Amino acid sequence: MNPDNVRIVLLGTTHPGNIGSAARAMKTMGLSRLHLVAPRHYPDPRAQATAGHAADVLSAACVHDDLAAALHDTRLVLGLTARARRLAADALDARRGALQIAEASRAYPVALLFGREDSGLTNAQLSCCHGVVHIPANPVYPVLNLAAAVQIVCYELFLASGCLEGKWQKPPPAAAVPLAPMAELESFYGHLQRIMQVSGYSRHRPDGLLMRRLRRLFNRARPERAELNLLRGILTAIERRLG
Predict the structure, then answer these.
(1) Which of 1, 34, 127, 178 is the Cys-Cys partner for 161 at CB 3.0 to 4.6 Å?
(2) Are residues 25 and 140 in the same domain?
């Protein structure tokens, strides 16, 4: 695993104490790349107080106005969810999700997304993910604090990396797979939606539902950059024919 390629992304965090606690959870497991998307209160002294000795992780956190900016160069994105979603990909448990992230991070930037404390990730935010991760818990009360969820996932990443003695294992170099970055995938989705509208295909279909289904399909396929360019070329040819 390359910890510098592992990004923990917190979306719309409402309590700054959870940001500091998440930073602390990350540092105890050797991670440092914290990204915040539209936090309600940040910077805030309450975040500093709960970060403890992870003030360096907190001070280096990147703050973004929107999710696209936080994910623009990532190649694998997994979202944490506490409940089943009809259009979401099959959920991985935290251990299998960590194995995927740890392996992929050897070649390119990856991200784990955590939603707001009270509502989690929205369907629109999950549609930006290649897969979802679920932390098994007591079905009578399966509620986890945000920072606790971050701690569990970071611990599983620590195990997945083989760092049982406190040092990052240095795996043999992994061949970089030219997967399409999220920014290019988003551009493709916009192009695809435009073609469906111009062609009349989406005229009598719920546009939002249709795009969520298509996002699920392509996120599951994880197209390479060359494959995405091929699809964009096809869409451009159709666009020209339609005038």
Answers:
(1) 1
(2) yes
